[in-house]
Amino acid sequence: MQPKIHVVEGVSFVATPYRAGTFIREDVFWRQFTITCCGEVEYPEDDPVYGTWWAPCKLALGQRGLIEDAMAMAAACVANDEFELNFDSDALGFRPELVLVHDELGRLVLAGQVWATAIRWCEPVLSDDDIAAVAKQVEYLRVEAAFEAGWDNHCTAAGLRLQARVLAGRVVDPFWRKHALRAVQAAAAIH
What is the pLDDT of residues 108-148, one digit of tens each? Predict the structure, then answer.
């Protein structure tokens, strides 16, 4: 679905599909969503005999004007393993874990967990009761992660923290809930 473009005194405006009767200048509209990917970057040890180590990293993937376009761009980056690591010449690779879509105000629009070469988009919660239940589950997972880390079970703790972040990705900004849900459902219907 391509939104309609209107030209007023030589300036192009887009009729946003997210708020009826609202027009956004075209150049602003097409970059209203910022897509990032959280994961880990691999680095070589100082002594090659010790192999490599991993560090948390958040990469910017790009900007788009429609939620569906943001989802498609993120899916293409994950499927093709196309992540820009030129910022660090020592980086060997990137392991993506979580994709986040934010609006121009920094509000969460959508989140998705990277699963092999695809993304499982988080279905946004719609009610306050669901938000409370998600918050309770997130807190439980974080407490369990802290407990596991205390016992030096770092892989288990990292997995629990990732589960908590993915679950927290269901709590999107109230304005974007229905739009994000519609986009996730449309993507699921295609696959």
Answer: 999 999 999 999 999 999 998 999 999 999 999 999 999 99
**Are 74 and 60 spatial neighbours (Cβ–Cβ below 8 Å)?**
no
- How many whole angstroms separate alpha carbon 36 and alpha carbon 56? 13
Close Cβ partners of 149 (under 8 Å, ≥ 6 residues apart):
157
Residue 164 CB neighbour total at 10 angstroms: 19
Question: DSSP string spanning 48-80?
Answer: GGG-EEEEEEEEEEEEESSHHHHHHHHHHHHHT
Do residues 101 and 34 touch, judged by C-beta distance below 8 A?
yes
Measured between alpha carbons, how far is 79 from 171 in angstroms, rounded to an integer?
Answer: 25
Q: Are 52 and 109 in contact (CB under 8 A)?
A: no
Adjacent-strand bridge partners of 37: 59, 99
- Whose tokens are 């092999």? That residue is 116
pTM over 0.85? The answer is yes
Alpha-carbon distance of 181 to 114, in angstroms, equals 18
H or E element that contains 187: helix 177-190
Do residues 40 and 25 make contact, with C-beta atoms less than 8 angstroms apart? no
